[in-house]
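Kindly inspect the following:
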Amino acid sequence: MKSLSSKSGLLLATIPALFSPVTLANDVTEIGLVAIEPNMEALVEDLLKSQEIDLELLLSDSVPEQMIMQRSRVGITSKKWTDKEMARFDMRYGYRPTELMFTADVIAILANEDNPATSITVAELIDVFGCSNDPKHSKWSSSSDARNGESLDTHMLPFAIDHNLKGHTTFSSWVECGADGEYAHTQFLSDLPHLINKIEDEEAAIGYTVYSDQISDVKWLSVVDNLGVNYDLNKETILSGRYPLATVYYMYLNIPAHRKGFTEQEKFFIGLTLSEDHQEVLNQYGFISLPPEAIQRNKVRLSLEEPAIEGGYK
C-alpha cells in the first residue's frame, strides 16, 4: 500500500496546537484507498502532489458504499450520507463516520453594471444558455428587486468561457450541446479577462463562469430557484446548499470513536478542512475554500474545540 510522505506535515504547520505529537495514533491501519467522485480526481491528485503524497484514488459514484464495505477509510462526495447509509456503517463499525465540510463548486452569473436587473431565475438561465434544436432568444425581464421595476427590454447576449465547466456536472448538463442538431446562442471566449471585458462592453450581456475566491469588482446576479426564492452569491448561501448553482462536497473519515488523536494520513486530510492554505489549488479547479465559520464547524466535529453556540452545529 502506498504511504504518506513526511512532507505532508508542512500543511499543518499553521495549526500546530490542534495536532500535538501526543495526539498521534500509531497503531491504526493506514488509510489506503481514498474514495472520491470521478469529477474530483484532478483536484485531489493536485492536492496530494503539492505535498508529495502518494496515495491511490478509488473513483466511485457511491463513496458511502466503498467506506461501508471497508474499501476506503476516507471519502469525498457531493452527496450527504443517508440515514440508511449511516446505520449500515454504524452496524459494521459500532460508530458513525466523521463528516466534515470540504469545498464547493459554484457557477456565478455576471451582468453589466448598467443593467437594472439584479437577479435571474434558473428557468431563464436554462433558456438563455441551454441547447436545443430551436433555442430561445431570451429577453431581459425586470427583477423583483430591480430599481423601479426597470428592464432593458432587449434580448440577452450570452457569453461564457470555453471549456470552463470541467467537473461541474449539473450546470454542464443544462448548457452543453450533445444531440445532433442542437445548438445554443452562447458566444464562447478564451478566458476570464475576455469574458469580463465583454460583459463591461455590452449592456445586454450575461455570462456564466466558475466562481473563485479571487474574482472581484464584477456584478453578480442573484439566482431565483424553482420555488421562487432569491439567493445572493456568498459563501453562506453556497455552503448551506441553498444557492441553486452550487454543489457542496463533504469529507467522511472512518475514525474509531474510542481512540484519541489521528494518524499522519488522517492529519493530512483533516488539515485540508481546517485551513485556507490550499485556496489557490481549489480555485484552479473551480472550487472555493472554506470560510472561518465552516472551519470552526469542522473543528467542533473533530472535538478540537468546544461549540461556539449552545447545542453545537448542525
